[in-house]
Amino acid sequence: MTLKSRQKIIYFLLAFVMYLLFRYLLGPRFGLEGIWLTITSYVFALIFPSIYLYRLWATKRQLISMEETNL
Q: pTM of the entire structure?
């Protein structure tokens, strides 16, 4: 699966926002600090944009298979 530039921008923005959200708001509320805050921030920032990409890919595959069955 190759990403278009629009999808790359959306993925990057989602990852960046999720990183900042966890790093400065959610992480300290869970009592995380130091290396644990950094690691969990990166993991959090990768999980949600990856879910977005998977849903985008699954929807695209479903549309392609529906078009093939209608032919």
A: 0.71
